[in-house]
UniProtKB/TrEMBL annotation:
This is UDP-N-acetylmuramate dehydrogenase. It is an enzyme of class 1 (oxidoreductase). Gene3D superfamilies: 3.30.465.10, UDP-N-acetylenolpyruvoylglucosamine reductase, C-terminal domain (3.90.78.10), Uridine Diphospho-n-acetylenolpyruvylglucosamine Reductase, domain 2 (3.30.43.10). The lineage of its organism: unclassified sequences, metagenomes, ecological metagenomes. It is found in: Cytoplasm. Keywords: Cell cycle, Cell division, Cell shape, Cell wall biogenesis/degradation, Cytoplasm, FAD, Flavoprotein, NADP, Oxidoreductase, Peptidoglycan synthesis. Cell wall formation. Its cofactor is FAD. One of its GO terms (biological process) is cell wall organization.
Amino acid sequence: MTIRLADLTTLGVGGPAADFVLASSEAEIIDYVTSLDAAGQPLLLLGGGSNLVCGDAGFDGTVIAIGNRGIEARVDGNTVEISAAAGEPWDDLVAYAAGSEWAGIEALSGIPGLVGATPIQNVGAYGQEVSHTITRVRALDRRAGQVVELTAAECAFTYRGSAFKESPDRWVVLDVAFRLATDVESEVRYSQLADALGQQIGDPAGAQRVREAVLALRRAKGMILDPRDPDASSAGSFFTNPIVSDLVAASLPAECPRYPAVAGVKVSAAWLIEHAGVTRGWQARAGSRAAVSSKHSLAISNRGGATAAEVIELARSVRERVHAAYGVELTAEPRFVNCSLGPIEG
C-alpha cells in the first residue's frame, strides 16, 4: 500500500513515501532510527504533520511516525512538573494542564502537532513560548548513538528556534518536561488575548478561561483543525515575524506593529504581507488551488487538491512582494521536505 505524505500532513501536499513505519514506543523509535542510520538509509521523522511542506516527488526513504504516549505529573509545592512523551498530542497536554488550572502553556491551546515538535520550533503564541516552561528534553543523539538529557539552557532556545532546529538530522526528541504554576493565574501578555478576555495586558486570568479564549481566537482565524473549514488545511503560520535591525525598523511605516526582541526589533509579518498588496484569499495566479487563508494573512491554505508546487509558487510570490515593498525578507516557518522556496529573485 502506497503511503502519500499528503495524507499525513495538515497542509495536504506531498508525494509517496518509499516506506512507512509507526513507532509506538520509545524503544521502537530508537531501534528504527539507529538501524536506518547504521544502514545509511534516509529517514523522515513525522509527528502531527502540521509543520511540513512535502514535495510532490515524495520521500525516497522511510517515514517514521512518532507514536509513543504517556503523561506523568508530579506536584511539588506551588509548581508541578509534567513529563510528556513526544507522541502525545500537544493540545491534549494543554487541555489536561488548563483543566487542572496549572498555568504556563494555556495560551498555546489549539496548536496542532505533537509534544515532541514543540521544543524544536520553540512553539509560541499569544505571549507564551514553550521555552518559558520547559525544564528538560530527553532526546536520542543520532551522532553519538545514545539517549541524552538536555537542560533548557542546552536547548538554546531562540524565537521559533532551538538547538534541535539548528541540527535537524542530529536529534530525535523522546519526551519533554514542563514546570507549571499551581498557585497563580496566568498573566495575560498579548493585547488581542487581553481584549478577548475584557482585561488589560498584565492582568491575571485562570488557565481554563485563557484556553477557551485562545481557542475562539484561533478558530476565527482558521487555525483550528476542522475538516469543514478549507482554511484549516494549512501548515499554520507560514512565515515568522521578522527580526530586523533598528535601522530597518525605522524605515518601515510607523503603523507597522513592532515588538522588542533579543537582537533587534520584531515586526509583524501579517502587517507587511497585507500592506504589500496580498489580500486574504489571494492567489499567485488564477486557477491555483493554493491561496492565502481567507481568515488570516499568515496562513497558506490548500483549497482542495493543491500540489506542493502551487504552495511554493504562492509562498514565493508573497515573500517577493514583501521584499519589493519593504526590503524585508520573510522566513518560512514550516520544514520543507524534498522541496524549497529558494532565494528571492532579482
